[in-house]
Specification:
alpha+beta, 1 helix
Length: about 210
């Protein structure tokens, strides 16, 4: 009996610590976002667009942030359920700030010479509405010295235009795609190259050392 009480007490304390940590983390991220928004125009660079299949570990947190010339974003994420990652943050451009929410589920974890895949769905809000979904695939080769990533998905974008007293809602549909290669060079240096696009726009290529 005493063992059962001890196990339940330990479990309750662990859950309470987890949710207190989560609340504190989100408050810190909100403060960071407010400070972060003022620094957008001070640095150059741009983030990678092609996603990998990896997610944060179960009941752990991580923070993705990038400050770029075109846009900057901050995306705190945590994993409340094994295999599932939830994220909510902001995308900041010169003209607007957008709220972003995203969920990613990893169906199979990538291993050496074996592909992993998952499913991502998210929304981007204000001043327009956007829904997107895509399938990330990651293949690790040569004992993870070369890692290939592929994305294929769909985006629905809704815009509101005003002509006098008339309001018009316009919907646009895009097929999205992307491919990225991560190649380990000497020591901690990795070369990343990616090409991505959405129909009917022209594709974009980007490379960076990390």
């Amino acid at each position: 009996m005493y063992k059962g009480i001890e196990e339940r007490t330990t479990s309750m304390a662990y859950n309470l610590l987890f949710y207190v940590s989560l609340g504190s983390y989100l408050l810190l991220m909100l403060l960071f976002m407010l400070l972060f928004s003022g620094a957008v125009s001070t640095v150059s660079g741009q983030q990678m667009v092609v996603d990998d299949v990896g997610i944060v570990e179960y009941r752990a947190f991580h923070l993705e942030a990038w400050i770029g010339t075109e846009e900057s974003w901050i995306l705190p994420a945590f994993s409340p359920v094994r295999g599932l990652e939830l994220a909510a943050g902001a995308v900041i451009t010169e003209d607007e700030t957008y709220a972003i929410t995203e969920a990613k589920y990893m169906f199979r974890e990538p291993r050496n010479n074996r592909a992993g895949f998952g499913l991502v769905a998210g929304t981007l809000l204000a001043p327009f509405g956007q829904f997107y979904t895509y399938v990330p695939v990651t293949l690790s080769l040569l004992e993870e010295r070369v890692v290939l990533h592929d994305n294929a998905g769909y985006t629905l974008e809704r815009n509101e235009t005003v002509d006098g007293d008339q309001h018009y809602n316009k919907e646009e549909h895009f097929f999205t795609w992307g491919a990225r290669t991560d190649m380990a060079l000497a020591g901690p240096v990795t070369l990343l190259g990616a090409i991505f696009g959405e129909t009917p726009k022209r594709p974009i290529f980007r490379s960076v050392f990390e």
